[in-house]
Write a structure and sequence with these properties.
Distance between the termini: 98 Å
Radius of gyration: 38 Å
Order of helices and strands: EHHEEEEEEEEHHHEHH
Strand content: 15-25%
Mean pLDDT: 81
Shape: rod-shaped
Largest sheet: 4 strands, antiparallel
Structural class: alpha+beta
Helix content: 40-55%
Number of strands: 10
C-alpha cells in the first residue's frame, strides 16, 4: 500500500470586508432596539436584536504585520492581511497569526565537529511567517517546529567543518564565520520552507571546545602558536645571516673559507634564535686562533 504524500498548502487572499461600514449597521440596530424598548414592539425588537448579534459576531481586528487565516467548517478560505477593523461572515473561523520578525537565541548544544572533537555551539536566528497557510495546516505547531529545526540545522552545519584549522585551506567554524553563517542560513531556510517560514538572519553566537577537552586543546593551540613563532623567527634569522654574509663579501671586509663561514652561520643563528641574551667573547688572537 502506497502512502499518499502530503499536499502543500498555499496562501491565498480571503474574501473579507472592512468593519467600519458594519459599525453603521450596528448603530442602526441599536437605535432600533432602543425604539423597540421605548415603544414596545416585537416586530422591531426581535429583528433588530438578531441583526445586532449577527453583525457583532463577524468583527475582528488586525494590527500591522498580522494576518488572519479564514476557514469555513475546516476548509481554508484564504488569509486576510489588511490591518484595521475587519468583518467576515460569523460562521467563518478566524485564526490570527503574527507575520512579524521573531528572534530566537538557541540553547548551547554539544556536538562533534568534522574530526570528532566535542564542541559547544549556539546560534541566533531571526525568522518570520511567509506563508500563513503552510504554517497553519502543513505542520502541527509551527513555533515548536522552528525550535526543533534550528537545533537540527545547527548540528548539521557544525558537524560539516572542524573547529580549528590544522590543514591549510580548510573551512573552519572558528576561522570562517561568514561562510558558516551563510551555510546555516541556507540550511535553515531549506528545512523550514515546508512550514512557510523564512529565515532572514542566522549566525553563531557561541563556539567553544567541550569542557572535557578544552584544556588539552588549549595546550595544542599554545604549541601551534610556539611552533609558528619559531618558524617565523628561523626564517627571519636565515634572511639576516644571508644579508650579513653577502654584505661582508660585497664590501671586501673579510673573506671566509667554508669552515669559518659555517662557524659564523652557526654563531649568528644561535644569537638570533636564542631565547637568552648572548654573552660576547673577545677574540684577542688571529682569525684562526681563538
Amino acid at each position: 500500500m502506497e502512502l499518499k504524500s502530503m499536499e502543500a498548502s498555499r496562501e491565498t487572499d480571503a474574501s473579507t470586508a472592512s468593519g467600519y461600514p458594519m459599525l453603521v449597521v450596528i448603530l442602526l440596530s441599536l437605535l432600533a432596539i432602543a425604539y423597540g424598548v421605548r415603544f414596545p414592539s416585537l416586530l422591531v425588537l426581535i429583528p433588530a436584536g438578531l441583526i445586532f448579534a449577527f453583525v457583532s459576531a463577524g468583527f475582528y481586528m488586525l494590527q500591522p504585520n498580522q494576518a488572519a487565516v479564514i476557514t469555513l467548517f475546516g476548509s481554508y478560505r484564504g488569509t486576510d492581511r489588511t490591518h484595521g477593523l475587519r468583518w467576515v461572515w460569523p460562521w467563518m473561523g478566524r485564526k490570527k497569526i503574527s507575520a512579524r520578525a521573531n528572534n530566537i537565541h538557541s540553547d548551547r548544544i554539544k556536538i562533534n565537529d568534522l574530526r570528532g572533537n566535542p564542541i559547544e555551539i549556539a546560534c541566533n536566528v531571526v525568522w518570520r511567517v511567509r506563508d500563513t497557510a503552510q504554517a497553519s495546516f502543513d505542520v502541527d505547531d509551527y513555533r515548536e517546529f522552528v525550535n526543533i529545526q534550528i537545533e537540527a540545522g545547527l548540528r548539521t552545519v557544525g558537524s560539516r567543518h572542524p573547529y580549528d584549522d590544522i590543514e591549510e585551506g580548510e573551512t573552519t567554524l572558528r576561522g570562517d564565520g561568514d561562510q558558516v553563517n551563510a551555510e546555516l542560513l541556507t540550511e535553515l531556510n531549506e528545512r523550514l520552507k515546508v512550514a512557510g517560514i523564512v529565515v532572514d538572519e542566522a549566525g553563531l553566537t557561541h563556539l567553544a571546545y567541550a569542557p572535557e577537552i578544552a584544556g588539552a586543546m588549549l595546550r595544542r593551540q599554545q604549541a601551534e602558536a610556539v611552533i609558528a613563532a619559531r618558524a617565523k623567527l628561523v626564517l627571519g634569522a636565515v634572511s639576516m645571516v644571508e644579508m650579513a654574509l653577502a654584505k661582508l663579501s660585497e664590501d671586501n671586509i673579510v673573506h671566509l673559507d667554508d669552515e669559518r663561514r659555517a662557524a659564523m652561520v652557526s654563531n649568528l643563528m644561535v644569537v638570533l634564535c636564542g631565547e637568552r641574551d648572548t654573552q660576547p667573547i673577545v677574540n684577542t688572537g688571529t682569525l684562526y686562533n681563538g
